[in-house]
């Protein structure tokens, strides 16, 4: 099972990916989590990406493409994964397709959690870390709409996209995802 889980900030994609990891027994790959760990550890990569992560801007594509390549080459990713928060730009999406061809891995499905903007704002404010300002939250939502929403069409035309109503309860969304992937 190889799934992409896309959705805006506050759409519940992290929560759902974690639940799916347990249910399906494949690793959860969250680019947001990886980047936050790199920042916290003070690594070279962490220093390079810190200003983007902390201001809600997107980390440049070349860095993200290298990061996801390294992650997918790790042995635990050989037999499936749930990727969350990646790709976020058209270039990342195209490069991911090339990488998967090279690794002889096939994408099972792309799931998008559809959540209305007012709900994204409310949920992001509710879980905001102390340094998250309204401005940063709004920037994350703007970047999602400008850069990530257009790639949904890329997956739609290639018939890989399933949209799930993310305004429902955590359990309802979980069940809707399982039925979308035929589990
Ligand atoms: P997330 O936890 O998925 O909201 O990600 C937190 C932050 O990490 C984002 O606001 C971006 O700064 C960065 N990030 C995560 N995934 C990506 C990606 N695919 N492309 C660029 N930046 C990313």
Walk me through this protein's architecture:
- With about 180 residues, the chain is α/β, with parallel strands linked by helices.
- It has eight helices and five strands.
- Strands 2-3-1-4-5 form a five-stranded parallel sheet, with helices on both faces.
- α2 crosses α3 and α6 packs across α7.
- Bound molecules: adenosine monophosphate.
- Adenosine monophosphate binds next to α2 and α3.
Beginning-to-end CA distance, first to last residue = 11 Å
**What string gives the helices and strands in order?**
EHEHHHEHEHHEH
Tell me the structural class: alpha/beta
Shape: globular
Count, helices: 8
Share of β-strand residues:
5-15%
Distinct ligand kinds: adenosine monophosphate
- Considering DSSP H and I runs of 4 or more, what fraction of the residues is helical? 55-70%
Number of strands: 5
Could you tell me the radius of gyration in angstroms?
16 Å
Which regions are unreliable across 5 or more consecutive residues at pLDDT < 50? none
Order of strands in the sheet with the most strands? 2-3-1-4-5
If you average the pLDDT, what whole number results?
A: 95
Task: Briefly say what this structure is.
This protein has 183 residues and is an alpha/beta fold. The chain contains eight helices and five strands. The model has no long low-confidence stretch (mean pLDDT 95).
Which key phrases capture this entry?
57% helix; 13% strand; alpha/beta; 183 residues
Write the layout of secondary structure elements.
Elements: E1 2-7, H1 13-24, E2 28-30, H2 31-41, H3 44-55, H4 61-72, E3 81-84, H5 90-102, E4 109-114, H6 117-126, H7 134-157, E5 161-165, H8 170-180
């Amino acid at each position: 099972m190889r799934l992409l889980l896309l959705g805006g900030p506050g759409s519940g994609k992290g929560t759902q990916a974690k639940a799916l990891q347990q249910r399906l027994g494949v690793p959860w790959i969250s680019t947001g989590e990886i980047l936050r760990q790199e920042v916290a550890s003070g690594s070279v990569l962490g220093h390079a990406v810190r200003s983007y992560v902390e201001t809600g801007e997107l980390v440049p594509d070349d860095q993200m493409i290298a990061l996801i390549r390294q992650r997918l080459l790790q042995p635990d990713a050989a037999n499936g994964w749930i990727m969350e928060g990646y790709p976020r730009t058209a270039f990342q999406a195209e490069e991911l397709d090339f990488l998967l061809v090279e690794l002889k891995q096939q994408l099972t499905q792309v799931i998008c959690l559809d959540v209305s903007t007012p709900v994204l704002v409310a949920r992001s404010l509710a879980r905001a870390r102390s340094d998250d300002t309204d401005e940063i939250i709004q920037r994350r939502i703007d970047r999602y709409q400008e850069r990530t929403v257009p790639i949904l069409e890329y997956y739609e035309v290639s018939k890989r996209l399933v949209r799930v109503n993310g305004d429902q309860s955590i359990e309802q969304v979980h069940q809707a995802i399982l039925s979308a992937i035929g589990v």
